[in-house]
Write a structure and sequence with these properties.
Blueprint lengths: L1 H12 L22 E7 L2 E5 L2 E16 L2 E12 L5 E14 L10 E9 L9 E12 L2 E11 L5 E10 L6 E12 L3 E13 L4 E12 L2 E15 L3
Antiparallel strand pairs: 1-3, 1-13, 2-3, 2-13, 3-4, 4-5, 5-6, 6-7, 7-8, 8-9, 9-10, 10-11, 11-12, 12-13
Length: 238
Amino acid sequence: MRALVIVLLGCLIFPTCAWAYRPFDSTEAAVADLGEFEVELSPLGFRHGDDGPVWISPATRLNYGLAPGWEAVLEGQVEHPASGHSEPTENELSFKKVLKEGILQDQPGLSIATEGAILLPGDGQPGAGFSLTGIASQRWSWGTLHVNLGGSRTREGHGGLFFGSILEGPADWPVRPAIEFIYEREFSTLEEASLLAGLIWQVSDKFAFDLGIRQARVNSRPETEIRTGLTFAFSTLE
């Protein structure tokens, strides 16, 4: 709790733009500025599927601008099922690189990036894996589109594929609607398709809040998830 308070105070002292990519699973073809910390935090979420009701608290993604065009990302969450013990899951360390500066960097054309991730072991998720994703983003006056396509080796040793797309409303709207479509497959074990409808409220350059409702089919079985959170950022160089 003390660390979270320090980070929040830092955000107030060192303002910077916090363009949230919560509440999505996909991402954008942009990275944090050099020396910038961007914190994506969900204090509370909820999922209901085959495993029954599960509370998710917290879910956190920490982004840091390592070098011009480079970003390191550490993420994870703690799940609290109705029956059983709480487990940290979805632990992941990744590095994102902008390959081509474009509209998201105030340059003409597509923004293109790639992200490589190491899937770290967690309780109930033994072993490690990796993934590699290509990302493209384009913005128009009426909205922004992000497309992700990747492959992976899961913690259990299975090959996997991932496709994700986000369509947002106009970037200058203080509250912009967005939808995300995901298709994910782990060969021989899992097939998932989901649609998320969300809102991002850009309170200021320093803060953004988000809300998302996700409906999925996981191996042909329904799953519903509610995601809430906020994004804030601060610079370590000022």
